[in-house]
Amino acid sequence: MSRFLWHGLIALIYLFLLAPILVVVIVSFDTRQYLAFPPESLSFGSYAKVFANQTFISAFGRSVMIGLAVGLAAVVIGTLLSMALVRYRFRGREGVNFLILAPFLVPHIVLAVGIMLVLAPMQLLDSYTGIILAHLGITVPYTVRTITMSLMSVDRRVEEAAMVHGATPFAVFRRITLPLIAPGLIAGGVIAFLISFDEATISLFIVSVKVSTLPTEIYNYLEVSTDPQIAALSVLLIAISIVVVIAVEKLIGLRRAL
Amino acid sequence: MSEHHVVVDNLVKTYPGAATPSVDHVSFALPKGEMLALLGPSGCGKTTILRMIAGLIEPTSGAIQLNGREISQTPVHKRNMGMVFQAYALFPHMTVAGNVAFGLEMRGIPHSERGPKVQRALDMVKLGHLGDRRVTQLSGGQQQRCAIARSLVIEPELLLLDEPLSNLDAKLRDEMRDEIREIQSRTGVTAIFVTHDQDEALSMADRLAVMSAGKIEQIGTPREIFDAPANEFVAGFIGAGNFLSGRVTAPGEAEIEGLGPLRFEAPARIGSQVNLMVRPHRFKLAAPGPNAFTGQVDSLVYRGQILTLGISVGGKRLTADLHTHAGHLPAKGETVTLAVAPGDVTFLSEAAA
């Protein structure tokens, strides 16, 4: 009996956690011009409107491009930083380590103000370069973490064996280290992509019209109207995240890579 | 020096912050085709020497010559060596054949020539049928064979083996020991291997270097090391021994405390203090007489071909290995006399009294 109660409690907690998503999913099929629950009648009308909305479509395209660029760059930078942190003992190593992890500790709103103040004099506000740099600041800590974990699990003796049998340092990296840390690279890249794709707070400070991302366009849209289009768009975004995570999980095992 | 294939000259390695060097002025040379064992307890510096020769550790000072070239400043990947690591260190993301082909690929050998060479190397270690397997699917012994094939396929100028048998179980170890020796003599490759196991060193190596605390205590053939150890450390490290010390009373005769006179064949000054050793298998059952000690058997270990017995004489314990086919075998509690020929007493050291 107590077991039954316990399971019921757990189910309730999950329901509470998932309720907002559930509500959004249901509302996305509403036909009225404002957000309300429960819906009166259901249709795919809001989805059709989302796909017809040029602002959303082009912002989606930009978000994907920015996300890909950020994911790729964060992996490259993360790999270089991780190699330095894991393989070399140098003065200031602890300091670098702390600096890389600092964005975890600072609220995004504070970071956003800081980044804006830095980018403004460089004329980088509302530019691809600016938004990508800003996103790198918050994603590199994640890629450094996943790649560092992968690197630490690589047996040094295996790399030494490659060296002794004739591999140059670069060949050791390309043929041995890189394949062995690939799961960490992919996981790090996917996480960086998803964070960039989701990021609203910092983006709002950096972009205005030229390189607006999907989250900033959602925010702009909400300021003027609240119709089920937003709900439909949200459902689409959730679906994209789930698909990406499942794909990575199937491909390499996200839990292992993390 | 030119007749030697490998020359290690006054090699020193002191790790930063260490008070004493890990490798302390080590020198040795070996001719082409010889197999040398570096033998010693853990921490004696033997692995450090091997890694310096491979180029994985930079020496503090000293020279390493291979085939007449000084290589201590040559980058690792240009030294043309093969190495078998203790835990094999195979490339986990490659197949067996991929592992073996790696060194050839790094040397720019075209794909068409690699295949037959890889196959020959795999056949040599009896893995010819497993080339397509992933190395993670191999048993311990097979991984070991794969590591050997990977090292030999590049026809290295020197083969290094770091405790190659320590990860195998006892039965496989004996098998691989013979096999490594057989492959080494067939290919004629010069080899250095590191071990802490005296049986391994004695049975595999042409010569062995016994090390302690960063120094080579003695270098010689297994027989020289076993029968004529240079000092107490070597005598104690290799094989069992009865260590006896006493004062020289006459030429070739010492008064052993508690035992009486013992004759030996070595020049020692009268009045000096000598350290002598008798290997257990040098003792024979005999009638009381010179160079014989009588006592009661207080321990017996029957080991098939050999019976190890211990007797107590004047507060000392003597251990003897007797062949079990040698007629009468003593029982526990029986009084026996053990005799040793003066030529079978090993002279270790002498100190002025």
TrEMBL record, chain A:
The residues that cross the membrane are: 9-29, 64-86, 98-122, 128-147, 184-209, 229-248
Q: How does it sit in the membrane?
A: Multi-pass membrane protein
A biological process from GO: transmembrane transport
Kindly state which keywords UniProt assigns to this record, in alphabetical order: Cell inner membrane, Cell membrane, Membrane, Transmembrane, Transmembrane helix, Transport
Which CDD domains does the record cross-reference, listed alphabetically? Answer: TM_PBP2
Q: Residues in domain ABC transmembrane type-1?
A: 60-248
Q: What cellular component terms from Gene Ontology apply here? A: plasma membrane
Give the matching Pfam families: BPD_transp_1
> What organism is listed for this UniProt entry?
Frigidibacter albus
InterPro entries registered for this protein in UniProt: MetI-like, MetI-like_sf
Gene3D superfamilies, sorted: MetI-like
Q: Where in the cell is it found?
A: Cell inner membrane; Cell membrane
Task: Supply the name of the protein.
Answer: ABC transporter permease subunit
The keyword RNA-binding appears for this protein = no
Family label: Belongs to the binding-protein-dependent transport system permease family.
Automatic annotation (TrEMBL), chain B:
Which residues does the UniProt record annotate as the domain ABC transporter? 6-238
The record's listing under SMART domains reads:
AAA
Keywords attached to this Swiss-Prot or TrEMBL record, sorted alphabetically, are:
ATP-binding, Nucleotide-binding, Transport
Q: One GO cellular component term, please give it.
A: ATP-binding cassette (ABC) transporter complex
- List the protein's name: ATP-binding cassette domain-containing protein
User: InterPro entries attached here?
Assistant: AAA+_ATPase, ABC_SmlMolc_Importer, ABC_transporter-like_ATP-bd, Mo/tungstate-bd_C_term_dom, P-loop_NTPase, Transp-assoc_OB_typ2
Q: Which family does it belong to?
A: Belongs to the ABC transporter superfamily.
Xref: PANTHER family: SPERMIDINE/PUTRESCINE IMPORT ATP-BINDING PROTEIN POTA, SPERMIDINE_PUTRESCINE IMPORT ATP-BINDING PROTEIN POTA
Q: Domain of life here?
A: Bacteria
Pfam families reported for this sequence: ABC_tran, TOBE_2
Instruction: Give one GO molecular function term.
Output: ABC-type transporter activity
